[in-house]
Design a protein that fits this description.
419 residues; Arc Repressor Mutant, subunit A; 11 strands; 46% helix; globular; PORR_domain
Length: 419
């Protein structure tokens, strides 16, 4: 990756090229350099850049196998998490097996529940109980001791990272137009940003200096409101990165996006020119009030990209399903066609179609299919995967012993037949 950056006293962009960032053997910086050279050769060096309108410019979507694979790798983990969540939400954290079987379609579970339990041992204990006092006993599922231990670990990790969670909540509110978000919508995206299940009930009341609940959660008319503006939270990831690079290089660096085109990707000339000019626009913080700006201006386009960049940066996996982002269109002033941003700026984002769901991903957060920009709350996922792997190992060991027993029995039968 490289940074398209510019010091305040130098016109030419400063860049650090890294392999894999070539566009037909020429980088975006190459075109920026040619643009500056061309302007310098004119008699009037004060000509302003005029960025073409974006309505007629289109970028063809191109599949990124590595980033699709990053989503595919988490498929089993997310499936298990959905089933666990379903059981945890039941009274007493137990459910009749046949009830869970009826919910397979909603859970996107394409195998029978008993098959799922056999493939993922260690999550639940199976026992018999009555649904009604005089009914026959049926199979129930309840949380296993291993899963209870994980849930305690999850609480510990959330407590250790509570300042991070509070800052995320404040940042989401600070970027919104009215500094208020629907509590129910935030509950819906809690997994995306790493908020604990009880964050509205237990966490928010502990920080009255920052956050306040208005209304009653669960009734559709409750909101989370920002009480006070904390300057420590108003610095975006891009601005923090520019400051760090300035300290490292000793040169004042202008905040800007990383632009990383996938291998083999080619932009048409008119789009290449638009990207070149667009990248030269000043970066606007997603926390800055721009309500007076023209919604169709290139500057507003860049600010919108900055909002999406910040939202994805705050998410756990640096990716969020597009329909979930769409739920906040009013709060963040997204246009009806906001999803086109992810294909138009394909050097910053990738829109995966894996699993039949559009998912916006932040390119710079990944190296091939590995997430390199790891959120501290990802430790929860790591612990859950360890729990799953323990169960898979136990299952594999049981299968091996069964095969050995069958082989031994067959050998003994063969000996008896010979006798």
């Amino acid at each position: 990756m490289f940074v398209l950056a510019r010091s305040e006293t130098v016109v030419h962009s400063v860049a650090r090229p890294i392999p894999g960032m070539l566009l037909k053997n020429r980088t975006i910086v190459y075109y920026l350099h040619n643009l500056n050279t061309t302007f310098a050769s004119h008699t009037n060096p004060k000509i302003n850049l005029q960025i073409k309108p974006i309505s007629s410019l289109k970028v063809v979507w191109r599949k990124d196998t590595y980033l699709d694979q990053a989503i595919e790798k988490d498929k089993q983990y997310k499936l298990c998490a959905r089933v666990v969540k379903e059981v945890l939400n039941e009274p007493g954290q137990a459910i009749p097996l046949r009830y869970l079987e009826k919910r397979r379609e909603r859970l996107r579970l394409n195998i029978k529940v008993k098959t799922f339990l056999r493939r993922n041992p260690g999550l639940f204990d199976v026992y018999y109980d009555r649904i009604k006092p005089k009914s026959e006993s049926v199979e129930f599922l309840r949380v296993s001791d291993r899963l209870k231990q994980f849930l305690e670990e999850e609480k510990r990790i959330c407590m250790e990272n509570e300042p991070l969670i509070v800052s995320k909540l404040c940042k989401l509110l600070m970027m919104s137009k009215d500094k208020v978000l629907s509590a129910d919508k935030l509950v819906h995206v809690k997994r995306e940003f790493g908020f604990p299940n009880d964050f509205l009930v237990n966490l928010v009341p502990r920080y009255p200096q920052y956050l306040r609940i208005v209304g009653y959660p669960g009734e559709g008319k409750s909101f989370l409101e920002l009480v006070s503006w904390n300057p420590e939270f108003e610095k975006s990831v891009i601005e923090q990165r520019a400051e760090e690079e300035s300290r490292f290089t000793g040169i004042r660096v202008r905040p800007n996006f990383y632009y990383k085109l996938p291998p083999g990707f080619f932009l048409r000339k008119e789009m290449r020119e638009w990207v070149r000019d667009w990248m030269e626009l000043d970066y606007t913080s997603p926390y800055q009030d721009v309500s007076h700006w023209d919604q169709a201006s290139p500057e507003m386009e860049k600010r919108t990209v900055g909002v999406f960049h910040e939202l994805l940066s705050l998410s756990i996996f640096k990716r969020v399903p597009v329909p979930i982002l769409g739920k906040f269109s009013d709060e963040y002033r997204f246009s009806n066609a906001f999803s086109s941003v992810f294909t138009r700026h394909s050097g910053i984002f990738y829109m995966s179609l894996k699993g039949g769901i559009k998912t916006a991903m932040l390119r710079e957060a990944y190296k091939d299919d590995e997430l390199i920009d790891r959120d501290p709350l990802l430790e929860i996922k790591d612990k859950f995967v360890e729990l799953l792997e323990e169960g898979w190992q136990d299952s594999a060991e049981q299968l091996r012993l069964q095969k050995e027993e069958i082989k031994k029995n067959m050998e003994m039968a063969a000996i008896r037949n010979d006798e």
